[in-house]
Amino acid sequence: MFRKQMIFIFLLLPVFSLGQEIDLLLLNREYKQALQQIEERLAVRPQSDLYFKKGLALEKLLKFEDAIAALELACASDSVNPVYWEELAEAHSSLGNYMDAIACFQQAIGLDGQNLTLQGKLAKSYINLKAYADAYAYYQRINFQDSTNSYFNRYFAYAAYRTNRLEEAASLYEKLLQQGTRDLSVYLNLATIYSKQENMNGAVRACFYGERIFPDHPALVLKRADTYFLFKDYAKAQHPYERYLAANDSTFDVLKNYGICLYFTKFEEEAVSLLEQCYEITVNDPIVNFYIGACHKKLKHLHESIAFFKLSIETATPSYLAEIYHHMGQVYGWQREFKASIEAYDEAMKLDPDKVELLFEIATTYEEYNFNKTLALNYYRTYLLEAGEAAENADYALDRIKRIKEELFFEE
What we know:
23 helices, disordered N terminus
């Protein structure tokens, strides 16, 4: 009996030693050697744990497609092991396959529903997929069970922020801020939230806290400058803009905002120089053109001032706005709301006087309105005069002028 037991133990020893050898190879990051051992064993006897270890090794070698194939075999062989589903989800996440990752995490949670780590990973996959409402729901459940976990709270705050729960997000971010978190996004997001809540002091304070941990970080310096600018505190915005521009590449928006700050702090010549750089980038920004004009006005460069004020007026009117009013006038006409239709056409004409065909449409609308044929007659005449040979509806307009004259004659 003893002899049989010893023979059985010796028969098992190679199995145990081979399994331990693979684990040791994985532990020592010798993934290629581990894969070789795994393949040799799988050729003899396929096993779910071997497929799982194969998937782990392939993930470490960044061969995620092959890892997914191996982990799917592990899940197929042992579908009730949540660890296998979790690892398969992780492999999908590495490739950005967040929908597949979510499905796998849900399988794992179905087998291990109390595992907060799994719920957190599922919630993060929802964030990666920009499904913020779903992410918020899971992080809310996690927070109910563990409200002190800063890792979960970072993402919970972000999910609350992205679902417009600004009060809750600010409260969560404040706790992380007081803990001295080294996550830059906490300070930037909190500043953005306070700006949306029209709380300039809170936004600036978040930036200052961040700058204690990340001295001179350009994102925080710029966020503070933009916050002051947003609340029209141009004097305070000027210095952080200068700090940012001294160490970073200039962008259109930064140059534009800094130039406006210089205008309000009475550095008109410097402001013109900066704003003209913006003008060279794009000539169609009405704000830039206005402040260049305003600077020239203060400098008594009156000709330049008028030129830029005119340019500001021209560029302030979007080219498509007249077309919008045109379409709106047609729609009102179709609804037989003639007064509103004519008002819309008038706005279109004010915005784009070159749209002479609008005169024809106004004339036909007045005819349908049928309260003053003389106005319709005058608009037909003006249309023919303004459009000249380019009039697309000249024959119709001439015919209507003739008929309206006849009708007016008999009405007298």
